[in-house]
Specification:
about 5% strand; single chain; mainly alpha
């Protein structure tokens, strides 16, 4: 009985997969640098601390929501392949699928922040 050897992945697919993982790693690095920069800024500039206290969801929450939405969409693409969306009589394929999915994720996370924030 002969075992079929798996075909090597298409070089284009390997590049896309590597680029997606690079986006995920870069997003986490940016989030860390953003939070470290914000903390340093709050230590040395008192007005930034007051701004962060008064408007934390807008100053920190929304940028992190954008990154979280990006990570969700990229991880979805890594796991399931191309994102295609059909809803309300519209069909989004190609580049429009991930963009619309990002917008939906961003709005959902933003709405959750608004609802849960006092």
């Amino acid at each position: 009985m002969e075992h079929a050897t798996p075909l090597p992945p298409d070089p284009d697919q390997r590049i896309r997969r590597a680029a997606r993982w690079l986006i995920i790693c870069s997003a986490f690095a940016f989030a860390g640098l953003f939070l470290a920069g914000a903390a340093a800024s709050m230590l040395f500039e008192p007005w930034t601390l007051e701004l962060a206290k008064q408007q934390f969801p807008a100053v920190v929450g929304l940028p992190m929501a954008a990154l979280a939405a990006l990570c969700l969409v990229v991880l979805l693409e890594i796991q399931a392949g191309n994102v295609e969306l059909k809803a309300f009589g519209f069909e989004f394929k190609g580049a429009a699928g991930p963009i619309v999915m990002w917008v939906i994720c961003f709005f959902a996370i933003s709405a959750a922040i608004k609802m849960l924030w006092k």
